[in-house]
Amino acid sequence: MKTIFCLAEHRRNELRGITFEMLGKAQELAEKLEAEVFAVLLGHKVSEFADQLSNHADAVLMVDDERLAGFSQLVYQKILAQLIHSHNPVLTLIGHTAFGMDLAPSLAIAAGLPLTTDCIDLQISNGRLFAVRQMYGGKVNAQISFKGANQYLATVRQGVFQTRQKQSKGKIVNLPPPQEVDSKGKKFISYVEAEIGDVDISQANIVVAVGRGIKKKESLPVVQELADSLRGVLACSRPVVDSEWLPKDRQVGQSGKTVKPKLYLAVGISGAFQHVMGMRGSEMVIAINKDGNAPIFNIADYGIVDDLFKVVPALSAKIKEINK
Amino acid sequence: MNIVVCIKRVPDIGETEIAIDKDGRGIKTDKLVYDINEADNYALEEALLLKEKFGGCVTAVTIGDEASNEQLRICMAKGADTAIRLYDSKFAGLDGYVTAKILCSAIRGLKPDLVLTGCMASDDAYAQVGIQLGEMLGYPHATLVTHIDIENSLARVRSELENGLGMVLEIEMPAVLAVQTGINEPRYASFRGIRDAMKREIKVIGLSDLSLQEVDVGETGSKIRIEKLFIPAVDKTAQILSGSTDETASKLAIILKEKGLI
Q: pTM (2 decimals)?
């Protein structure tokens, strides 16, 4: 029988959500392909994870070894390449996360597999697999076909697919660790904790976030004034932190913070998915952007298509007038 | 230290409307403005900083037609010592895998101590080329790199994970490091630098100069194929407030008032 592999992603004693999302999508594909879903679990002292995963897969292939205790792309790659070789899965899914971005492209070369990264959908049409992924900052979608062999590798975007439980528990298969793994050349040393700043934006009721559209640091006070008039906090998207105009703890998004305020006002933010990941739980979203086609308008409740340097001061003035 | 930096000419898409071309597999490019890919620009700066610290030479490499000379000249104006442009009409339609393969073929002979790339290009967003290049060269590699310290052929790097978390890795050189935006503060090219760079040579390398065959490159050598592009379907659209700036600001303030937010 055909198989689909999903690589379980875990960090610091926790299975990450992307794992179950991938397994959900894999189950849907498996029905169409008449395939079985195998969760591949590599780690040390992870039998508890195996039990959790068995509710979402036909089988859990587990390799428990102390060399897998920390993060090791090289050890993961070696074992996965062997498992792919011995089980011939039609498709192997890995999260398009920091971990997956490190591992999957390299594994694709080592195992000789075609790779499509950051998939937001996977479809079977006439027995062929197609992937959908985004380009140009999420403004364009691409339908991708895989060439050559009948074994493929795909990385999957977080937060896109639904998880689903299986009726019956899958079996757990303990596999022997490889005898020798050359992990020379790349060594995990330690984690670096997130910086803690003066304001915790994740606790705020009103967040006014500023993005690339602000163009220069000197313009920040204009947006700060709007945040103040709303009694909210000032946050931002990645480019503002990259330019060191605001500290990292003000960044909303995948590599920054997740916020769920009553109001999220996005100013000059186009809405790339990395940013949206951090704010889509907001109760109400308002976007101000010059580009009417910016993806941020797809998740906003209200929008103004205009120059932020005109709208923001005008809005601040109106709010102050009402507050008076 | 001999450093190679891989850069890419990409359209600026920030506040630009993107339209799909007739063929349906590419975008209309006539109205676009081009620049060095943002993450690559940070990689270039990191290479220049390392050169200033350790001495050596920085080579900027790109795949692209003559238009990419502009971006290579900016690299030289900022301080890159040499520039190489890899181009052949047979490269057309290449995917991330073939991109890495062509770069590998050209870079191997340069015997670099360090190869820096951006972690992702803003146009096709594969986020795979740097890592695959490393794997093909047989060098250790890391991506989303936000800090680099080098001592005795050992790179101690910080890589970004999710939710503000990072990790420290030790990577033996030669290595390929795919750099994340924000790692440094990229310099601007001076007018004098640009003027001087205009006179400098850009080495152009085609398929016949590389150890690759026609079947290895372009669409034939690629492992994936873009079947079609389409504008994403919108499941929810914002209610766009219309009118003059004063009117839209008023409307929005009233909505905020009604919702009890002010």
A: 0.95
